[in-house]
């Protein structure tokens, strides 16, 4: 799927959060890094319409994220830095089914798709668990399942390994690597994106580097050392 930024700019109360960005993305695995406040999350949120461009445009699979907002958003899923914040219902299976109910699917299809996504991520045993009782790794898997059950082509993850222990970090790394969907990861976990197809580096609201992981991570390390 192609994602195209055309002079996409974001301003908040007169402050430029993202300077005009011209960029085309189509790779299967894309990493985004940068210091806090660099514009990386703003850029990623433009893709599914959580943030609207003040100027310019963003298209997802040819759909404008403003003019075709609903259709464009249906192409993408977003996992927040604290995935528990996007869980609405207290029981995991009910939370996963919630997004399907909102789409007006029949009960039988909702049950079938919920069961299938739980099995896909090997978390069927958590179906009746309360979401606030899940471990960090389980919460991240549950959030991924809740988003992917609706069938987006692109998944965006914001700091998916943040505050995870080594075991759960490895679990999420394996999960991300195995996803057939296109994936964009915003992260400070540089090891997570070493095998990605492309890495973008943002600094002070601008795209500072755009290349293969080794080169881009090297550029980021230089920025961080300043």
From TrEMBL:
Q: Is Ligase set as a keyword in this record?
A: no
Keywords carried by this UniProt record = ATP-binding, Hydrolase, Nucleotide-binding, Transport
Q: Which CDD domains match?
A: ABC_cobalt_CbiO_domain1
* Taxonomic superkingdom: Bacteria
SUPFAM superfamilies, per this entry? Answer: P-loop containing nucleoside triphosphate hydrolases
Please give an example of a GO cellular component term from this record: ATP-binding cassette (ABC) transporter complex
Q: Which PANTHER family match?
A: ENERGY-COUPLING FACTOR TRANSPORTER ATP-BINDING PROTEIN ECFA1, HEAVY METAL TRANSPORTER
Which family is it part of? Belongs to the ABC transporter superfamily.
Its recorded name reads Biotin transport system ATP-binding protein
Tell me which species this is from.
Shinella fusca
Question: What lineage is this protein's organism placed in?
Answer: Bacteria, Pseudomonadati, Pseudomonadota, Alphaproteobacteria, Hyphomicrobiales
């Amino acid at each position: 799927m192609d994602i195209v930024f055309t002079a996409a700019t974001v301003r908040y109360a007169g402050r430029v959060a993202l300077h005009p960005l011209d960029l085309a993305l189509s790779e299967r695995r894309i990493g985004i890094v940068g210091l806090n406040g660099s514009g990386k999350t703003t850029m990623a949120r433009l893709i599914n319409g959580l943030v609207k461009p003040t100027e310019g445009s963003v298209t997802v699979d040819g759909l404008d994220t403003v003019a075709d907002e609903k259709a464009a958003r249906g192409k993408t899923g977003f996992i927040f830095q604290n995935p528990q914040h996007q869980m609405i219902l207290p029981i995991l299976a009910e939370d996963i089914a919630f997004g399907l109910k909102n789409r007006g699917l029949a009960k039988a299809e909702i049950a079938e798709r919920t069961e299938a996504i739980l099995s896909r991520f090997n978390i069927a045993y958590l179906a009746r668990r309360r979401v606030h009782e899940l471990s960090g790794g389980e919460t991240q898997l549950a959030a991924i399942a809740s988003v992917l059950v609706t069938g987006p082509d692109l998944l965006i993850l914001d700091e998916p390994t943040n505050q995870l222990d080594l075991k759960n970090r490895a679990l999420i790394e394996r999960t991300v690597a195995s996803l057939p969907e296109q994936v964009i990861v915003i992260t400070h976990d540089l090891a997570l994106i070493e095998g990605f197809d492309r890495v973008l580096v943002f600094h002070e609201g601008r795209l500072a580097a755009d290349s293969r992981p080794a080169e881009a991570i090297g550029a980021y390390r230089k920025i961080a050392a300043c």
